[in-house]
Amino acid sequence: MPGYPVKNKMEMDMRLILLGAPGAGKGTVAKLLTAMSGAVQISTGDILRAAVAAGTELGKKAEAAMKAGDLVSDDLIMGIMGERLKEDDCKKGYLLDGFPRTIPQAEALKVLMANIGEELDFVVNIDVPKDVILDRLTTRRTCTGCGAIYNVKSNPPKEEGKCNDCGGSVVQRDDETEEAISNRLDVYNEKTAPLAGFYEKEGMLLTVSATSSDAVIEAIEERLGATA
Ligand code: AMP
Q1: I want to staple 10 with a disulfide (CB 3.0 to 4.6 A). Which of 16, 37, 46, 101 is the partner?
Q2: Using an 8 Å Cβ cutoff, are 19 and 126 in contact?
Q3: What pLDDT is attached to residue 1?
Q4: How much is the pTM?
């Protein structure tokens, strides 16, 4: 992806879940990894935002929950992922960003992957302190064209409001108001954080306590090297 440095090539096909609170850096890490490997980033949030923008049936069903910072239904999400993981670009691996988000989604993913004969490598739990998360979410800006992530303080676009990569509009997401952010963090703690325990029991959890995406990438490379 333009704008993200290609550091080295990861030769193996990776199938990872990126777990972490909103603002933990899952999207940034996923974009770095796609530039280093053949894996694709699959963000259920991006898929849903595109559906809302296009006004599709899916978008209409998801819009209200998204705006409030609530989760959309497991059935809707599993419908999307059941189709998405069968697409050709998934053959060289994928980075699941923002999915699964509930225990039922994690269980359904296990069945789905067994049915298509694929296995997860591991789950990266990006653990970032709450004050950093809050600061990042309120200052984050996102390109409506390609999903590139900016920050008004640490990484603003060269031209205000315009994406460096695709020229799309760089805006604050609808669900990044103070109220929605606070709800998203509560929802994360209640519904998504228990996934760390779920994957720990499966022996698949790699927790990285780091605020820099480079440190997260290093930990992933180390684990991939160890399991290759
Ligand atoms: P994200 O971009 O990952 O923060 O997702 C934005 C919003 O999309 C979330 O706050 C949810 O409303 C919805 N969403 C994204 N992924 C999921 C998921 N796996 N399960 C339920 N809702 C989701």
Answers
A1: 37
A2: yes
A3: 44
A4: 0.89
Report the DSSP pairing between strands 93-97 and 205-209. unpaired
| Catalytic residue IDs | 26, 101, 140, 173, 184
23 lines ligand 1 (CB under 6 A): no
* Alpha-carbon span 164 to 61, nearest angstrom: 32
Check residue 228 and give its pLDDT: 53
Residue 173 Cα to ligand 1 middle (Å): 12
Q: Are 63 and 52 in contact (CB under 8 A)?
A: yes
The CA distance from 213 to 31, in Å, is 10
Residue 195 confidence (pLDDT): 98
Q: Which domains does the chain have, with CATH numbers?
A: 14-39+92-227 (3.40.50.300)
Measured in whole angstroms, the distance separating CA 122 from the mean position of its chain's CA atoms is: 15
Pocket of ligand 1 contains residue 198 by CB under 6 Å: no
